[in-house]
Amino acid sequence: MTSMTTLPSQLSRKPTPAGVLILMVVSYPLFAHVAALSGRPGLIAASIGWLLVLALLPSLRRGSPVAWTAMAAASIGLYAIAGSPAPRLLQFLPPILMIGFMAWVFGTTLRRGRMPLIERIIRTLNGPQDDLNQDIIRYARRLTGVWTALFVVLAVINTTLALCAEPGGLLLSFGLQPAVTLPLELWSLFANVLNYLLVAALFVGEFAFRRRRFPQQPYRGLLDFTGRVASLGAMFRDVNGGASPPCDTVQKAADR
Predict the structure, then answer these.
(1) What is the chain's mean pLDDT, rounded?
(2) b/e string for 120-130 if b means 16 or more Cβ within 10 A?
(3) Percentage of residues in the chain with pLDDT exceeding 70?
(4) Is 170 helix (H, G, I), strand (E, B) or coil?
(5) Which of 65, 113, 155, 252 is the most core-located residue (most Cβ within 10 A)?
(6) To 10 degrees, the CA torsion angle through 118, 106, 18, 213?
(7) Average pLDDT for residues 145-164, to the nearest whole number?
(8) Contacts 24+ apart (CB under 8 A), 125-131
(9) What are phi and psi of 208, to 5 degrees?
């Protein structure tokens, strides 16, 4: 019998196929939307738990004791509150925190003296060339700015809708009456569905444009590109303060 202590490390032997990873990610918004519409705290808690699985998946597959401990603690906590109203309040936080975090990740790399995140991704996927075409470098900076702007706008809208949602919105939950109220269903439709559709639309649309603008690419099609970007998850969690990394650092990221 395989022991529980060896199972996490065995999970990391093979990378998650890009198609499976995409299905797992796509399932969360739908799960969260259905849970919000149901109003059932247990189902909402389960959707939050599924999000935590997705967030911790790379570390879980590497067998990180910290990740497995965090996942176990979170599961116990969510189970404990599943019968209370708490999940109905917590459900508003993931869209705000996730989108706000992505706005910070992209935006912080646009500061003077730092390498834009899209340029880092290009250098990682293409190899650590020091002589990137200047058109590509300018394009990378502008595209990083576009992603930053999108995430900022989405974070503001998510926060506004969460504050004004009825029933159970953030303001109403703290006994404050918003000047304008919006149906909870509208918040969920935007925060749990349209949010991610807009992100996916920019991702796919930009990929198609880039294939025409810069036809020489080191990957095969959208699925291959998506898988390669997904494999750079650590880059989105640790942007090195946005500082321009040395070539050997970029190469190490490419090797992972």
Answers:
(1) 83
(2) bbbbbbbebee
(3) 81
(4) helix
(5) 155
(6) -30
(7) 97
(8) 125/218, 125/219, 125/228, 125/229, 125/254, 126/218, 127/218, 127/251, 127/254, 128/247, 128/248, 128/250, 128/251, 128/254, 130/247
(9) -65, -40
DSSP three-state, residue 114: strand
* Of 91, 77, 94, 99, the residue nearest 37 (C-alpha): 91
**Cα dihedral sign for 41, 24, 11, 91?**
negative
Residue type, 143: L
Name the residue with tokens 């997705």.
54
State the Cα–Cα distance between residues 44 and 82, nearest whole angstrom.
8
As a whole number of angstroms, the distance between CA 34 and CA 47 comes to 9
CA 10 to chain centre: 25
* pLDDT tens digits, 126-136: 765 556 788 88
Q: What number of CA atoms fall less than 13 Å from residue 73's CA on the CB side? A: 7
Hey, is 166 helix, strand or coil? strand
pLDDT band at 26 (very low <50, low <70, confident <90, very high): confident
For 122, the token pair is: 């290009």
Please report which helix (H) or strand (E) contains residue 209, including its range: helix 195-213
Closest CA to 195 of 92, 105, 90, 88: 92
Q: What mean pLDDT do residues 133-144 have?
A: 90
Query: How far is residue 213 CA from its own chain's centroid?
Result: 27
Beta carbons within 8 Å of 163's beta carbon, 6+ residues apart: 169, 170, 171, 178
Task: Output the CA torsion sign for 164, 198, 119, 248.
Answer: positive
